Amino acid sequence: MNTTPYKLILAHGLQQRSNDKGWRTLAIVAALVLVLAVVLMVMGNAKVAGIIGGNLIMTVAAIYWGGLVVNLLEQNHPNSARLVPGHLPRLRQVLVAGWLLSSLPMAVGASMMGLPPLPAWIVSAWGMAALGLLMRWPLGWTLLSVAPFLGFWLYRHGLFTEAVELLNSRPALCALISLVLPPLPLLQVLGEGNGTHRKAYARSERWRDMARQGEGAQAWDSSKLPAPLSWITALVQGPYRRQLRRLSSRTDAASIGSRLMLGLGPATHWTAQLSGCVIFGTIFGLVCLGSVWIPISFVDFLRAGSFGLTIGLMSALLGPLTGIARTLDKTRNEQRLLVLLPGVPRGQALNRLLARQWLMQFGLTWLLGLAVAMAVMGFSGAPAEMLLPFLLAYLLPIVMVWRDWARQTSKGHGPVLLVFGVISSALLGYALYRWAGVPIWLYGSLQLVVALGLGITRWRKQVAAPQALPVGRLA
């Protein structure tokens, strides 16, 4: 039997992101996390090292599995499924084999975190199957908002206890069920080339087009999406469109900065942060509504969820920062026209204008997020030992926005490493507080001093650099 086609498809889950250096970036981050786990193990904290190492293995396995499913969905074109002999059976065989192969390292990672081997594999098998279904039907991600409440309901009714007893009494039966049943819904992920498959593939193409538009300088075209999604998209894009209509007719010098930032596209505009806050607020409201099922007070519920609330809020406010380099690289053609607008400054004057605009946009939103988070901590009594380092760590992507944009390359590991730097800085502060007794206010002050010094240095670098726009023209 010729297994070469199967090997090529299985490897494509790794190869399809090679142009963006996504897997190389993941390898760098994984190596850094692995070093941290080894250091903790040497220091004698094997439990924490196991948790970090297990999470690392599970993350890599989930990323590979998700990439493989997306690649198989793109290959599963309706015409190929209908006309090419053996196309659909081969893809389905690879899908099931990929599910089984990726569930094994996932189970290893769960075992390193303290779960027994057999339960770890069973949970991994069902979890990876669910992830594959969510990659095919992305709206299913919204159901995860009720998962904690559903889990609590199952726990209260003793279903978890019954499942543990069944696993202990009949482990072979549970393993057989977990080996046979999860692939059955997975087989429905790939279509057979009929009318339903054509509609689903066209809908996926519209999703991909919409994602590509969101990275560029155009507002999303949601006219071809289903009614609920088109309404949500119109609501999210509404602030940017209104600003576009309001400022497009102005020619005064006072509006130069606003029009320039508007022309860089919705992904970097302040309306993207507003839209993120609307989405986050809606999700948070639904979660609070679901909390009525849990027999605890709202203050205790807010204290327990304060960490997720803080991280979600800051991610919504400062999310555009992590992808700003890639977004500006995609809008270079628009930037060539923007610098020709009447009144747009040239050279270092343009650099100073961009630096001030980004300082106002991201600095003020960081202060807003900090104020909200401090209010939540004050109201709920949530400890600041973990939250404060994370809040101050978000200063890192703010100061990194000032750079020599004219020499900015289009390739690199910037966004992922920037997020990794935020997480590492916060975890370092918590570790120093927990195991070395360093006061949290002292580490917070050090974060502020480092951010201030780095910000001044990078501000001067951007101001003294060649004209920032178009980005990357001197790279």
Q: What is the count of DSSP helices, taking H or I runs of 4+ residues?
A: 23
Binned, the helix content reads: over 70%
* Largest sheet features: none
How far from one another are the termini? 49 Å
Question: How many E strands?
Answer: 0
For the record, the count of structural domains works out to: 2
**What amount of the residues lies in strands?**
under 5%
> What would the principal axes of the Cα set say about the shape?
globular
The succession of helices and strands, N to C, reads HHHHHHHHHHHHHHHHHHHHHHH
Radius of gyration: 25 Å
Query: Kindly state the mean pLDDT as a whole number?
Result: 77
Return the structural class: mainly alpha
Poorly predicted regions: 13-20, 214-219
Topology readout:
Layout: H1 4-15, H2 22-42, H3 46-75, H4 78-83, H5 87-112, H6 117-136, H7 147-156, H8 159-169, H9 171-180, H10 183-187, H11 195-215, H12 227-247, H13 256-263, H14 270-290, H15 298-304, H16 306-322, H17 324-330, H18 332-338, H19 348-380, H20 384-393, H21 395-399, H22 414-435, H23 440-464
Could you give a quick summary of the protein structure above?
By secondary structure, the chain is mostly helical.
Protein traits:
475 residues, mainly alpha, 23 helices
Provide structural commentary.
The protein has helices at 4-15, 22-42, 46-75, 78-83, 87-112, 117-136, 147-156, 159-169, 171-180, 183-187, 195-215, 227-247, 256-263, 270-290, 298-304, 306-322, 324-330, 332-338, 348-380, 384-393, 395-399, 414-435, 440-464. It is an all-alpha fold and 475 residues long. The chain folds into two domains: 4-193, no CATH class; 197-464, no CATH class. The two termini are 49 Å apart.
